[in-house]
Amino acid sequence: MDIFKAENKVIIITGAGSGIGKKTAILFAKEGAKVIVADVNEKGGNETVAEIKKNGEGFFAKLDVTNREQSKQMVKTTLGKYGRIDVLINNAGIVQDAPQFGFCRTDQNT
Ligand SMILES: NC(=O)c1ccc[n+]([C@@H]2O[C@H](COP(=O)([O-])OP(=O)(O)OC[C@H]3O[C@@H](n4cnc5c(N)ncnc54)[C@H](O)[C@@H]3O)[C@@H](O)[C@H]2O)c1
């Protein structure tokens, strides 16, 4: 197995129901990975899987990453289907302004 290629890798991506996770999931599936789309949002997750299935393989796992039992179940389901997990992309989350770090502020005059 070539560790630098996605082909045949089993890849879990949390938060793959939209945004960065969705794009990443579709790209990896096109490269031949088996992608587990793990998201709390069922509609978004199923839409990602529908895109994936145009060119590749994967399935949706309803998951709230803050829920330990759901996380365990997702791992169990993945191992039951594919026998292994090669990559975990912990992408789920929410985007918030972080003024205490100054991440989102730019001064147009400097
Ligand atoms: N977009 C940006 O500019 C940016 C910048 C810095 C960091 N990030 C980080 O990148 C990640 C993705 O950002 P994005 O812009 O694609 O966001 P997004 O809102 O488009 O997608 C986030 C996905 O995570 C899912 N999600 C949220 N909480 C969840 C939970 N508890 N369990 C499972 N799924 C959950 C949502 O349903 C959604 O599908 C986030 O962690 C975000 O904080 C994004």
Describe, in plain words, how this protein is organized in 3D:
The protein has helices at 19-30, 42-55, 68-82; strands at residues 10-14, 34-39, 57-62, 87-89. It has a single domain, classed as NAD(P)-binding Rossmann-like Domain (Rossmann fold), CATH 3.40.50. The mean pLDDT is 91. Helices cover 37% and strands 18% of the residues. The structure holds nicotinamide-adenine-dinucleotide (NAD).
Q: What are the salient characteristics of this protein?
A:
110 residues, alpha/beta, Rossmann fold, 4-stranded parallel beta sheet, 37% helix, binds nicotinamide-adenine-dinucleotide
Distance between the termini: 50 Å
Q: Compute the average pLDDT.
A: 91
**Share of helical residues:** 25-40%
Q: Report strand order across the widest sheet.
A: 3-2-1-4
